[in-house]
Amino acid sequence: MNINIDYQSRVPIYEQVVLEIEKMVALGVLNPGEQISSIRDLACELGINPNTVKKAYDILENKNIIVSKSTKGSFIADDVTGAKEAKVESIIKEIKTKIEELENIGMSKEEIKKRLKI
Amino acid sequence: MNINIDYQSRVPIYEQVVLEIEKMVALGVLNPGEQISSIRDLACELGINPNTVKKAYDILENKNIIVSKSTKGSFIADDVTGAKEAKVESIIKEIKTKIEELENIGMSKEEIKKRLKI
DNA sequence: TCCTTGTACTATTTGTTATAGTACAATTAA
DNA sequence: TTAATTGTACTATAACAAATAGTACAAGGA
To answer: Cβ–Cβ of A101/B91 closer than 8 Å?
Structure first.
């Protein structure tokens, strides 16, 4: 399932799994209803413990991004538009916070745009 | 020394101290040559262990942001322009990364600017 | 029947963060 | 001189989250 994990990162593995799957949903790599790797398979693929994947899947299920069906497998939820917009919203908010930081240090909006090349 | 620590944050206390002092230097609240709180004083003020403050100060000294003089105290370095620019650079880089994420999801630069109101 | 699925536990290990405590040498102030 | 303060340098321990290890169960599918 092409998930990239940075084992040196301070971000916990289970959270990286969440973020990667969220990204694939936002990108349209994973689509509503689609079955994703089983907990055991993904754990094997990433070389990590099944419990760690389970933790990530639990979080994704709580966010209504995936649905887990006992004895069947795990699937992307039927409606992920809410999750997509929430992701965009959270990134926008993070950027705004950082722009404010730059302004506090004394950079103008024009300077910032110039440095960002946008 | 008006440092704000979030004890619930996942960011370690010692790192929050580093970030706060870096910010005050960038903002011009703390200026070159100026003496800052002693390790013991700041620890007391924040209600944390002196070893934790010492760790933060060690990192700041490594970054050439402060200078510690045995038996005298700790001071803002004489030249912090490099540190200031490094901070701006790192924030710019973080923003760029997040903008790329939004573009990957399918947002245009115009849409992004609109959402950011810049 | 056998394999796979998600689920649900407990116990243990590991690594980082933070605290506790002590000690030393050098400077400063009383 | 004396007492207090400074950064420095240790060791030991506590606390916590992350991750692993291992086991077991019930249900669906081939």
So the answer is: yes
